[in-house]
Amino acid sequence: MTQRDSIRSVGAANAAGASAAPADARPDPAAAGAGIAARQALMAATAMARRDELEAALASLGPVPAASALRAPESGLVMLRGRAGGDGRPFNLGEATVTRAAIRLADGRTGFAYQLGRDAAKARLAAILDGLAQGAERAAVEAALAPIRARIAAEAETKARRVAATRVDFFTMVRGED
Amino acid sequence: MYVAVKGGEAAIDNAHALLAHERRGPEEIAEIAPEQIEHQLALAVDRVMAEGSLYDPALAALAIKQARGDLIEAIFLVRAFRTTLPRFGASKPLDTAAMAIERRISATFKDLPGGQVLGPTFDYTHRLIDFMLAAGVAPPAPAEAPAETSAVPRVTDLLGGEDLIEREAAEAGEPVGDLTREPLDFPADRDLRLQALARGDEGFLLALGYSTQRGFGRTHPFVGEIRFGEVMAEFVPEELGFAVPLGPVALTECQMVNQFHGSAERPPQFTRGYGLVFGQSERKSMSMSLVDRALRTREFGEDVVAPAQDEEFVLSHCDNVQATGFVEHLKLPHYVDFQAELGLVRMMRAEHAATRAEMKEAAE
Q: What's the number of CA atoms in the CB half-sphere (13 Å) around residue B323?
């Protein structure tokens, strides 16, 4: 089995189960959907985080299983697509640099990261956090990411409030009589 | 025949060292950091990302520094960089309806759901040089107001309900053309045209868009909507099988609404031109949407009478890296070519003189 095949199979297993469920348990599609949504939310937070924030989040977890590289961090490209008219046929808008990493924890859990940019160390940290969130450390990882999420939300809120102050309120000038 | 010429290695090395010295400038002036370019010359960074066809603000900022502010040189550097990286795949199409709006205006509807927000714009400034910037005066804090949380639908979706404006063709799963993988062939479908325009030179597209307004392929445009803000990019890796959020991407989108009088098959309805560009670039997205509409001649049975409607002309000349490569190659040594032409001209002049002499003799 090539490395790529092995990554695909463990990744698919993780995606279906979304947590370290016993192999003989019947997957609950609704639970898997909720698991994927939580995982996507975690990946969004780590993608928007700074590297030092992820370092602090991982350090705050205390002793965790050691991580080895399932795939060394690698920078590459993802072609970003738009749609004609915003809602029509897709077209290739242009590429973005993306860095990916895949890790395996000492207990067998795997974690993945795909993020904009070229920061290999940050992608590796995000993959470790993704792996840890696939099991016992889930609540701890979510708690460790809370300050990052709060920072991102506060910045978005400030930006939205500043943009809102530039909203145009039209008023109509009535000219002539009657 | 090519005749190899050697020499000039030392001159080239020294020229590059001199370039690096000139790039740095006087030592008593602080060196500029890429982070300063990224955040304080953000619109230059956006242009390099758009025409370099690579979303990476930090990389574009570094390219601008290396190119000494020559944006086409920076675009060239970015294009060269992207060829060194493998491609993981293509993203899910970006959903601009879900954009975190930083600016959204319409020239066609005064009161539209989601409202009009100006955001950070040069519009309505007086274009007077601000000497306070030279003095380094900190700007006042921006005003704030309660943030709206309601959805901001695209203007074209509002008119679409009545079929007053054409609807975009639905996705039918056809492969998406990619001019970075297959050479352009004509006629080119709209997906390839939009890709070429999205990475095309802003100045070239601006001039072509302007030409349609002045009557060379008139399209009667209205700005249905321009929006700028961030959209989450998403990619589905094979090994995961679900959409991974990659991070937010800043985009400017322009929906141009154009007149159309209908045909035997179609009742009269407005037609559309579309612009989508990395970063904040209204001029580019507007120009793109004007040229996109002008190029849709085959769909509407329009005669190709103007440069902006001629897809081979537009698509073959809109790429500034290709254009600068071919124009600037003229300065490289052409000694042998020119010697050949010189010999030819000398021979023709000799023949010319001989003919004149014969005619003069015959006349006497």
A: 17
Q: Which residues of B275-293 are buried (b: 16+ CB within 10 A; e: fewer)?
A: bbbbbbbbbbbbbbbbbbb
Consecutive H or E run containing A14: helix A3-17
Strand-pair category, A67-83 with B87-90: parallel
Q: How far apart are CA B326 and CA B35, in angstroms?
A: 33
Q: What is the mean pLDDT of residues B23-33?
A: 97
Interchain proximity B90–A39, CB inside 8 Å: no
At B216, list the tokens: 């060379």
Q: What's the confidence (pLDDT) of residue B110?
A: 83
pLDDT confidence of residue B185? 92
Residue B205: count of CB within 10 angstroms of its CB: 26
Domain boundaries, chain B: 9-82, 96-121+149-167+178-324
Distance from the Cα of B150 to chain A's closest Cα (Å) equals: 12
**Predicted confidence (pLDDT) per residue in B279-328, tens digit:** 999 999 999 999 999 999 998 888 999 999 999 999 999 999 999 999 99
Of B91, B242, B272, the CB nearest to A78: B91
What secondary structure does DSSP assign to B93-144, as a single string? PP-GGG-EEEEEE-SS-SS-TT--B--S--TT------HHHHHTPPPPPPP-
pTM of the model: 0.91
Prediction ipTM score: 0.93
Report the residue from A79, A88, A115 with minimal CB separation from B247: A115
